[in-house]
Design brief:
alpha/beta, Rossmann fold, Arc Repressor Mutant, subunit A, five-stranded parallel β-sheet, 8 helices, 11 strands, elongated, phosphorelay response regulator activity, transcription cis-regulatory region binding
Length: 225
């Protein structure tokens, strides 16, 4: 299990309306999160058992296993995964019921997307040891709030994945980060570990960082900054 706050947030979206689930997932990915989607309560429990999620966006009315039961089981297991419950009703008694089950926050449908993203972010802050707002090393300055990255004052213009990988390397503080850990924290569960996705991302990141080279490949172990 990783320390929460190692890096980019990993989110599970459990929502039986598939179109809505994919819309939410796409929006969260654009905000820089690694996201998996499931459409039933039993699938949600299976994924929550497999991966270390920071937040689950949990629809209350899931088929097969109700969202309330997913929340109950997650809380009973002592998981640090924060629960943001989605519900079709904004009624106060519904909200209270969801929070009584152990949900950390609550959003009624229809919701405004920016609000959902900011609530997910706020929950991450509660689940994780705080990520410092600025990370600096070797002339690189990473602003984790604005999601901007500079080297010696030059904007690096990184993609969300490249930003996440660079943040992981900076947070390791000179330590080596394995390709598996990069895949686990910066990609979603659909990433094929054999595609070389990490290698491709790393070569693009190296090119954007420019000379002198900063990222070392530690043969058979991973990468270090």
């Amino acid at each position: 299990m990783h320390e929460a706050g190692d890096i980019t947030m990993r989110v599970l979206v459990a929502e039986d309306e598939e179109i809505l689930a994919e819309l939410v997932a796409t929006g969260l990915r654009r905000a820089g999160f690694a996201v998996d989607t499931v459409y039933s309560g039993d699938a949600a429990l299976a994924y929550l058992g497999l991966h270390d999620y920071d937040v689950v966006v949990l629809d209350r009315d899931l088929p097969r296993v109700h969202g309330d039961d997913v929340a109950r089981r997650l809380v009973a297991s002592g998981s640090r995964t924060r629960i943001l419950m989605l519900t079709a009703s904004g009624a106060t008694e519904d909200r209270v019921a969801g929070l009584d089950l152990g949900a950390d926050d609550y959003v009624a449908k229809p919701f405004e997307f920016p609000e959902l993203v900011s609530r997910v972010r706020a929950l991450r802050r509660r689940s994780a040891r705080p990520v410092p707002p600025q990370l600096e090393r070797y002339g690189i300055r990473l602003d984790t709030v604005r999601r901007s990255a500079l080297r010696d004052g030059r904007d690096l213009d990184l993609s969300p994945k490249e930003f996440t990988v660079l943040q992981l390397l900076l947070e390791a503080d000179g330590g080596t980060v394995s390709a598996e850990e990069l895949l686990e924290r910066a990609w979603d569960a659909n990433a094929d570990p054999f595609t070389g996705a990490v290698r491709v991302c790393m070569s693009k990141l190296r090119a954007k960082l420019g000379e002198p080279a900063l990222i070392r490949t530690v043969q058979g172990v991973g990468y270090a900054l």
